[in-house]
Amino acid sequence: MQIARVIGTVVSTHKTRSLIGVKLLLIQYVDAEGELQDKYEVAGDTVGAGVNEWVLVTRGSAARQDEGQEKRPLDAMVVGIIDTVTVANGLLYSKKQYEYPV
């Protein structure tokens, strides 16, 4: 899995039948220092993530392992909304801090 930040939503009204009902998000990957990388991707979302949230993303065939996702043409799937990320030198991310900055 990788960590990414949701930076937007993607709307596609004309798409393959297997993608009907799938919420699509534009995500930007985050490195181990919490810095945004120059790598973007469109990912399916089954957990209800929102813009600016940090999320867990599976890629490749792992993105289609959840029940009901096996036949969808998705390369990336948001599978979790992150509450906190802690590294050796302290807290890297907290959803609460991000939502309610001091």
Entry summary:
The protein has 102 residues and is mainly β.
Characterization of the model:
- Helix content is 5%, strand content 47%.
- The longest helix is centred in the C-terminal third of the chain and has 5 residues, at 95-99.
- It starts with a strand and ends with a helix.
- The strands form two sheets. A five-stranded mixed beta barrel has the order 1-2-3-5-4.
- It is elongated and about 45 Å long.
- A hairpin with a 2-residue loop joins strand 6 (84-87) and strand 7 (90-94).
- The mean pLDDT is 89.
- By secondary structure, the chain is mainly beta.
- It is built from one helix and seven strands, in the order βββββββα.
Descriptive terms for the model:
mainly beta, 7 strands, 102 residues, two-stranded antiparallel ribbon, 5-stranded mixed barrel, single chain, elongated
Q: How is this fold's topology laid out?
A:
Elements: E1 2-10, E2 23-30, E3 36-45, E4 54-59, E5 76-81, E6 84-87, E7 90-94, H1 95-99
Parallel strand pairs: 3-5
Antiparallel strand pairs: 1-2, 1-4, 2-3, 4-5, 6-7
- Report the biggest beta sheet as strand number plus sense, adding barrel if it closes: 5 strands, mixed, barrel
Structural class: mainly beta
Shape: elongated
Give unreliable regions as ranges: none
Strand content: over 45%
Terminal CA distance reads 30 Å
Oligomeric state, counting identical vs distinct chains: single chain
Count of beta strands: 7
Side by side, the strands of the main sheet go: 1-2-3-5-4
**What order do the SSEs take from the amino end to the carboxyl end, as H and E?**
EEEEEEEH
Radius of gyration: 14 Å
Q: What is the tally of helical segments? A: 1
Mean pLDDT: 89
The share of residues in helices is: under 10%
